[in-house]
Write a structure and sequence with these properties.
The protein is α+β, with helices and mostly antiparallel strands. It folds into three domains: 268 residues, 7-stranded beta/alpha barrel, CATH 3.20.110.20; 121 residues, no CATH class; 198 residues, Distorted Sandwich (Beta-galactosidase, Chain A, domain 5). The chain has 21 helices and 26 strands. Strands 15, 16, 17, 18, 19, 20, 21, 22, 23, 24, 25 and 26 form a twelve-stranded antiparallel sheet that branches. Helix 2 crosses helix 3, helix 8 packs across helix 10 and helix 17 runs antiparallel to helix 18. The chain is elongated, with a radius of gyration of 27 Å.
Length: 676
């Protein structure tokens, strides 16, 4: 009778400083009942990884759960697995920071559970061989990746029932391959079918069935709490495994001590299969999906997976400029960390948390609160550097080949982009630790095709002895979502220059249907010898080009930004000029413009003062112009994918000051942050 070793592991994580009710829901619906159930089956050996901040939150706020973890550890049930304390993607941070984050969590586990981990959980299973040296330096012997990592690197699907050995720079590491079939089976299939899935790995006496996956599948994912706890799937599963004569539970390190490696392995830089698709741009994802359909069932053999695959995790920095900007701002402080104090160094590590840098079936980058948290840590770092005297720094922050001007006043962190129209791309306040420029472009996403072409959605049949997963659920209200699919052709920064021969209105501004005549909204400017004056010699196209120069002169003070815009054109006809700003607020629906709620849109005519009250920061942002303008504003919404279907997410408010000009215009705008 063939036996199999079940190597069962769970990974626990919530975005750092996530909404308190969201974290509490995960704890109450998932982590608490999971460990309570496991207490009754302490002979069941399993592995646990938790991000450090979540584990410490449980320790402080839910000591009963923490005590259950300690009890199971002392009983020999739990093997703790390490990672970066704040759950960074290790390949996206420096070697120095990797080791610091790993050692921080290892020390925490040693202090509270008496175990120094020998294994590591790779955040989002993002693998690069450059990690090996740092893992070795931290005393790590093994890690877990998906079987997809091996299959996409040319390995045989039938030889995934153990661990392999890899090496880099004279250091070696063991690699376990998580079974995709088990990831999709547990806990979604019935107990009987789940046991069959485990036994399918019983090839000889040394075979292992390997599963290490999100703990949130056991109670937090849609429909799973009822299935796992109320209908007692987990209890029945534990009982069935514990009494099964062909299955023995083991820890990963225990299995390694008793079994030889399956051989040598060198893996591609990759993550799990779905991540590879998500990291591609929309048209590439749709093309890949079409290619997979053309190949058909042959795609799932070893050869198909080896040659038809998605991108790498770092593609998210290419796909989303906002993600790249945050990442490169983090890298800047990582380089100068020797100048930071202890608290600032902790802010740096928090800024490295992975969730905000990518987007797939979870909200990620599209969730404003995650970006708000990231900018809070960034502003804590900048606040440490700010002085009474205004500080200017010219550097290529985002590695795009163009420099940005970074300005620190006593209370503001401001960044001006030379590449994108001398526009403001960061507007952070030190006393609120909030960035009002934390906006995001509305982009085409591959999953928007399900909204545009709902007939193309494959209807998946669900068996009676399983529940749906977030990979098979589709929740659509097409009519409500289609009208929201508007894609921006420039970054949603502030002080964007528009020229049109048709009058601006709320409707054509919101739909981007006004006739754009200038080449200033998404083109580079040059910086003069004065560090605050930017200029572009471009054109107005009607349709022939009329040479036009636009100069922006900025002035900065503690809580003020003044901008003077000078326009000089060879076109002598009358046109409309619009200065667009896009500002992020935590509660866009509660923002008032001149004491009016923005609602479905704001329109006001012939004004030269605008007061924006932000209830979240309790600040008023006052804007004054030197000429009376028409002002139009609307809430900037994106349609993003989530584990429950599709979400309309308010990202901020887009508004424009509109005036007329003929040949020349001097337009000034004063922006002041005022305490309420």
């Amino acid at each position: 009778m063939k036996k199999v070793s079940l190597l069962f592991g769970i990974h626990m994580h919530q975005p750092i400083d996530n909404f308190g009710d969201a974290v509490d829901e995960a704890i109450e619906r998932c982590y608490k009942p999971f460990f309570e159930t496991m207490l009754e089956y302490s002979e069941f050996k399993f592995s646990v990884h938790s991000s450090g901040w979540l584990l410490d939150r449980i320790r402080v706020n839910h000591p009963d759960i923490f005590e259950n973890m300690k009890f199971l550890t002392d009983k020999g049930s739990i093997e703790w697995v390490g990672a970066g304390y704040y759950e960074p993607v290790l390949s996206s941070i420096s070697s120095r920071d990797r080791q610091a984050q790993i050692n921080k969590l290892s020390c925490y586990l040693k202090k509270h559970f008496g175990q120094k981990p020998k294994g590591i959980w790779l955040t989002e299973r993002v693998w690069e061989s450059s990690l090996i040296s740092d893992l070795s330096a931290c005393g790590i012997d093994y890690t877990v990746v998906d079987d997809y990592h091996f299959l996409s690197s040319g390995f045989d699907a039938s030889k995934m029932d153990g661990y392999y050995t890899t090496e880099e720079n004279n250091h070696k590491l063991s690699l376990f391959a998580i079974s995709q079939s088990l990831r999709y089976a547990l806990p979604f299939f019935s107990v009987e079918r789940s046991i069959e899935a485990i036994l399918s790995h019983a090839k000889d006496e040394n075979s292992a069935a390997i599963i290490f996956d999100d703990a949130e599948k056991f109670g937090l994912w849609p429909k799973t709490h009822e299935w796992v706890y109320e209908k007692k799937w987990l209890e029945k599963f534990l009982k069935a495994v514990s009494s099964h004569e062909q299955i023995q539970t083991q820890h990963y390190s225990e299995y390694m001590s008793k079994n030889h490696s399956l051989g040598l392995a060198y893996l591609n830089n990759t993550s799990y299969f779905e991540m590879g698709e998500w990291s591609l741009k929309a048209k590439q994802t749709l093309a890949m999906q079409k290619l997979k359909e053309d190949v058909g069932d042959n795609y799932f053999n070893d050869v198909g997976v080896s040659f038809i695959k998605g991108g790498i995790w770092k593609n998210f920095f290419i796909k989303y400029s906002e993600s790249n900007y945050l990442h490169k701002r983090m890298i800047y402080f990582s380089k100068i960390q020797d100048k930071l104090d202890k608290n600032s160094l902790e802010s740096l590590y928090k800024l490295q948390t992975n969730d905000v840098f990518w987007h797939g079936v979870f909200g990620g980058l599209y969730l404003p609160n995650l970006r708000d948290n990231a900018y809070k840590y960034l502003l804590e770092l900048e606040k440490f550097q700010a002085k009474k005297k205004i500080k200017y720094e010219l550097l290529d922050i985002d590695y795009d080949g163009f420099e940005e001007l970074k300005v620190l006043t006593k209370n503001l962190s401001i960044v001006i982009s030379l590449k994108n129209g001398a526009q403001m791309m960061e507007f952070g306040s030190f006393d609120t630790l909030f960035n009002w420029q934390n906006t995001i472009m509305r982009r085409e996403e591959a999953y928007h095709d399900k909204i545009i072409n709902p007939k193309n959605i494959e209807q998946k049949t669900q068996k009676s002895d399983e529940i749906a997963t977030i990979h098979t659920n589709d929740f659509l209200d097409v009519d409500k979502l289609k009208s929201e699919l508007i894609y921006d052709w420039h970054q949603k920064y502030s002080f964007i220059d528009h020229f049109s021969d048709n009058k601006f209105s709320l409707e054509n501004f919101k739909s981007l249907s006004f006739n754009e005549l200038g080449d200033f909204a998404n083109q580079p400017f040059e910086l003069s010898k004065k560090k605050n004056v930017f200029k572009r010699v471009g054109g107005l196209f009607l349709p022939q080009k009329y040479t036009t120069s636009l100069k922006k002169a900025y002035k900065f003070d503690t809580n003020n930004i003044d901008i003077k815009i000078d326009i000089d054109s060879s076109f002598e006809g009358g046109l409309f000029y619009g200065c667009e700003l896009n500002m992020h607020f935590a509660h866009p629906d509660k923002i008032t413009f001149n004491s009016k709620n923005i609602g479905d849109g704001f329109s006001e005519y012939a004004i030269n003062e605008l007061e924006i009250y932000d209830d979240f920061t309790d600040k008023t942002i006052k804007l004054k112009t030197n000429t009376r303008c028409d002002v139009f504003a609307y809430i900037l919404n994106t349609i993003s994918q989530s584990e429950s279907g599709f979400d309309k997410v308010a990202q901020g408010i887009s508004f424009v000051f509109v005036t007329t000009f003929k040949k020349e215009l001097e337009f000034t705008l004063e922006l002041e942050v005022v305490n309420v």
